[in-house]
Here is the input.
Amino acid sequence: MFKNIYLVRHGKTEWNKLGKMQGLTNIPLCDEGRLSAIELKNTLKDIKFDVCYTSPLDRAKETASIIVGDSVPIIEDSRIIERGLGSYEGKIIDDVIVMNAWSNNMDWSESGVESANSVFKRTNEFITFLKNSPYKNILVVSHAGTIKCLHYNINGFDESTDLRDFFPENTKVYQYKI
Here is the structure.
C-alpha cells in the first residue's frame, strides 16, 4: 500500500528572518510564522491526515499543532530533528559553510556540524518506519536540512547530485508517495 507523505518545513522564526543558522537551537515561531501556518492549515483542510510526526523542536511542534490541532495524534520523533550545526548555530548563513555542509563529502563535520551521512541515515530509517506504519496520509513537520535529506532519500541521489539544488521553504508542502 502506498503512503501519501506531506513534508512541511516549520513556520518562520526571528532567526529565519535575520538569516541566522538555527540547527538544534530551540527558536520559537515568530508572528509571521504562526500566520503562515494558519494559512497552510486552511490550504490542507480537505486532507484527512491519519497522523502527524514532528521534530521535537518547538518551531516544528507549534507548526504541527496549528496545522492539525487535536484532529490527529502528533508524535515527536527525534529522527526528524534538524541537522546540528555546532558552533555555527546563531551565526549568519555563510555560503562557504553551506557549500561544505552539502558537498559530496558526506562526512564533513567541522566545528561540531552533524555530517550529512548521519542525517541521511536517520531520515532513511524514518522513511522505512513510515513505509511499515499502518497510516496512509502522513503529515511530517520538520526542518530544511532534514526535509532535504528526506526528499533525496525518497527520490534518490548519487555522487553527481548537487544537494544544494533543493531547499525547502517555510510552511510549504512537499508531497510524495512511498
About this structure: The chain has six helices and five strands. Residues 29 and 62 are 7 Å apart (CA to CA).
